[in-house]
Every structure is written in C-alpha cells, then in structure tokens.
Amino acid sequence: MAVRKNKPAKERKDGRRKNGVPRAHGNGYVNTRTPEAVAEILDRLKQGEPLLVICRDPHLPAARTFQDWYAADQELHADYMIARSLGWDAIAHRTRSIARGAEGSSGDIQRDKLIIDTDLRLLAKWDSGRYGDKLTQEITGKDGGPIEHKYAGLTDEQIKAEIARRMAQLT
Fold first, then answer.
1. Which residues contact 56 (CB under 8 A, 6 or more apart)?
2. What digits encode the pLDDT tens for the residues 115-169?
C-alpha cells in the first residue's frame, strides 16, 4: 500500500494560503538576514509593536528566526533590548494619551480603562524596575534599632545545651 504524503497548502502572493487563511508567522521562507528586515523589525519594536505581530508580515522572517538571529549576535541582541525598552516607553506614552482621551482613545471609558490596565500590568511585568511597584521590606530590632543576636557568640555545645535546657522546661 502506498503512503500518501500531505501536500502543504499553496500560498498566494499576499502570504495567505490557498484557502485564504493567513499564516501564523511570516511566510516560512524568509530566513535570509537583511539589514532592511532587521531595521524594520527594530523600528516597529521601538513603536511598541510586539515581535510576534511584526513577524506575521509576509516579507519578514518568523519570530523564531529573528530570535535565533539575536541570540547568535551580541550587537543585534543589544539593539533588540534597546528597541524593546523604547517600545515599552511608547506603550506607556500611549497609555497616558488614552487616559487623557486623546490619541488612541476608543471613546468608551470602560474599554479605555481595560486597555490602560492591561498595558500597565504588562509593563510592570516586562520592566518592573521602571514600571512596577517598588516594595521594600525592612527588618529592625526594638525601637528601630539593630536586631539582637542572643546566641551569636555561643559555641555549638553551648547552643545544644541551651536547646536541651529549654526542651526540659517544656516537659
């Protein structure tokens, strides 16, 4: 019995399959690194656009391909991290704009509130140093003084004897 091989869906020039469904990432064939493709990806990242969305364009590589490129190239990785940071700033700016009812506002207060809250939560996760709530915890002794260490200068034998003495008091 002959084994039938599945044929890949044919694609049209616009990057869609023959059945009209767009591909989930790139066109699957762009894997040649060009300065133009890298520049476009970095520019769009700086505007706050997610990498997965950028790499859905048929003329750009898949997101995984771009990730492989920057993993192998320290200079590109540094440029990528700077672009991401600037992109987060763009998202924060856009969030403030939406909150003021200006550019990007849907006009629906509840919808805008959801967009703002989602963006702020994501920013806090992505860059907690700049966008997260800073929590500090301070442990002090009595009246804000240093913590007392009663047993700091004792030997192991003295500590064991103290434990035995306290255990005897419990029984």
1. 22, 23, 24, 25, 26
2. 888 888 888 888 888 878 777 777 887 887 888 777 788 889 998 998 999 999 9
Mean pLDDT rounded to a whole number for the chain: 81
pLDDT tens digits for range 91-101: 898 888 888 87
3-state class of 112 per DSSP? helix
CB atoms within 10 A of CB 88: 20
Q: Distance between CA atoms of 120 and 114, rounded to whole angstroms?
A: 10
Q: How many CB atoms lie under 10 A from the CB of residue 54?
A: 20
Residue 4 CB neighbour total at 10 angstroms: 6
Contact 45, 87 (CB under 8 A): yes
Beta carbons of 54 and 44 less than 8 angstroms apart: yes
Residues pairing with 11 in the sheet: 17
